[in-house]
């Protein structure tokens, strides 16, 4: 074999094994300042790859170990893997994140299933809430308003009854100072946070204590004509909601009804008077709270309302505010429903005139009002007139999670609308987890579902499409009977 081929084969073998064919002189050694020799690469030798910091060498000797990933995927190991031991003194890495006293987020799965998140995140959320509570006593009005906004968002989207139980007195004192010394927006936010605090505490002694301590202040701000309309509106809602949740005596209920009645029906707006035109949102909040409290009145007090007080409602149908007109019509329907429950007949000389007025509102086509307002008014007053004439109520279904709730009466609809206005988008979370709301609407204790049940309850996209198509077709047929035919005329 030629010598060149022999040398090439030897060179090829050397490339495969990682050794050179001929022994080249090694790099020179020079002393290091610490006393150890240090290699100096010879000219033409590529520089070595720098090792990653704090990275131990690979056990196989093929260079440094790869850097750890910054994003961790928290999931359970396979069944064949050895179980990890919990750290000494710390929680088990697979323990549920929502232990007693921790927060429960809106996006969290129902009780009994695997909760998402870490206890550290829940502790941070609790620390932020404590910081917001401390900021309620800050000297800056902007800081106090920002803290109230954060508390309003947290209370409406989470269930915090256990967290707030031991802090309710401090929070009540802070809200009292905001209502007394605050102005405008701060008072309005304080009233909303107070409503949510009472909703979190429930109808027990704690909620009753919160209501009794701040009821005189709410009445004072509500009846103060010099206070801002926004603050009075918030206090009207807070007075009605807190009384509905936590009032234990009939005297508190009657006094709140009288206070609210004096707001939406002043002496000038009594029988034969003109409807109030100023502060429409304030009158709407007062009337909504009054009608909410009317649903829990004993039959004896309802009879006194049916005798003369309900006659203050028809003048509100002539208000310039479409929201106040609609709310007045719904309250009149509620009064007729309560009269049927206590077997009382509303035979009055003005009843026929009231029905004629409802028919006018159900078919109104005045051009000086917005088209959307006219359509909404006609739709609602058609339902009101149908109920008064034939006792038929348009049932509504509310779905949340795996459950659904039926609104089959004006009293139930008024209660749901009141809580929805306060909670906003958090109403579905509270319907699933808040024991007070579930007791009010007769939903029973919160459901306990595991991961398998949640997965089995999900429907496919095709099944959901078929259901939506059938529901759309049925809804179109139902609405075509009451739809305004004049909209089809060109």
Automatic annotation (TrEMBL):
Family as reported in the entry's similarity comment: Belongs to the IFRD family.
Compositionally biased tracts (Low complexity): 95-119
Domain of life: Eukaryota
Protein name: Interferon related developmental regulator 2
Region annotated Disordered, chain positions: 1-128
Pfam family for this entry, one: IFRD_C
Domain Interferon-related developmental regulator C-terminal: 434-487
SUPFAM superfamilies according to UniProt: ARM repeat
Domain (Interferon-related developmental regulator N-terminal): residue spans on this chain: 116-389
Lineage summary: Eukaryota, Metazoa, Chordata, Craniata, Vertebrata
Signal sequence, start to end: none
Residue spans of biased composition, Pro residues class: 43-59, 84-94
């Amino acid at each position: 074999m030629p010598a060149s081929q022999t040398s090439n084969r030897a060179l090829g073998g050397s490339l495969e094994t990682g050794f050179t064919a001929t022994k080249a002189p090694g790099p020179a050694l020079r002393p290091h300042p610490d006393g150890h020799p240090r290699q100096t690469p010879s000219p033409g030798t590529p520089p070595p790859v720098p090792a990653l910091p704090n990275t131990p060498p690979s056990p196989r000797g093929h260079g440094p170990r790869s850097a750890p990933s910054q994003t961790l995927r928290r999931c359970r190991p396979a069944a064949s893997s050895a179980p990890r031991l919990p750290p000494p003194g710390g929680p088990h890495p697979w323990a549920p994140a929502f232990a007693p006293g921790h927060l429960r987020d809106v996006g969290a799965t129902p009780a009994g299933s695997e909760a998402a998140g870490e206890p550290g995140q829940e502790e941070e959320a609790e620390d932020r809430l404590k910081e917001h509570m401390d900021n309620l006593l800050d000297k800056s009005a902007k800081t106090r308003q920002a803290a109230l906004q954060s508390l309003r968002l947290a209370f409406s989207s989470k269930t915090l009854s256990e967290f707030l139980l031991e802090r309710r007195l401090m929070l009540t004192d802070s809200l009292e100072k905001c209502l007394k010394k605050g102005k405008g927006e701060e008072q309005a936010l304080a009233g909303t946070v107070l409503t949510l605090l009472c909703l979190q505490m429930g109808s027990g002694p704690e909620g009753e204590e919160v209501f009794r301590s701040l009821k005189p202040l709410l009445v004072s701000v509500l009846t103060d004509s010099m206070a801002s309309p926004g603050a009075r509106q918030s206090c009207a809602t807070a007075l009605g909601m807190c009384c509905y949740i936590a009032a234990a005596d009939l005297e508190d209920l009657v006094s709140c009804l009288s206070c609210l009645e004096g707001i939406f029906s002043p002496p000038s707006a009594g029988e034969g008077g003109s409807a109030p035109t100023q502060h429409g949102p304030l009158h709407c909040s007062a009337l909504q709270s009054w009608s909410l409290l009317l649903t829990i009145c004993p039959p004896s007090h309802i009879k006194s309302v049916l005798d003369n007080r309900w006659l203050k409602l028809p003048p509100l149908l002539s208000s310039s505010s479409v929201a106040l007109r609609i709310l007045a019509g719904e309250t009149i329907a509620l009064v007729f429903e309560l009269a049927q429950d206590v077997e009382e007949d509303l035979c009055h000389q003005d009843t026929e005139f009231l029905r004629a007025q409802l028919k006018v509102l159900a078919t109104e086509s005045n051009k000086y009002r917005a088209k959307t307002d006219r359509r909404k008014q006609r739709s609602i007053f058609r339902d009101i007139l149908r109920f008064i004439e034939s006792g038929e109520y348009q049932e509504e279904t509310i779905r949340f999670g795996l459950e659904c709730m039926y609104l089959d009466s004006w009293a139930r609809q008024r209660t749901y609308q009141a809580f929805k206005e306060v909670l906003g988008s958090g109403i579905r979370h509270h319907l699933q987890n808040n024991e007070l709301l579930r007791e009010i609407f007769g939903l029973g204790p919160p459901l306990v579902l595991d991961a398998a049940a949640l997965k089995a309850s999900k429907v496919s996209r095709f099944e959901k499409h078929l259901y939506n198509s059938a529901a759309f077709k049925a809804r179109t047929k139902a609405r075509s009977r009451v739809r305004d035919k004049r909209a089809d005329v060109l």
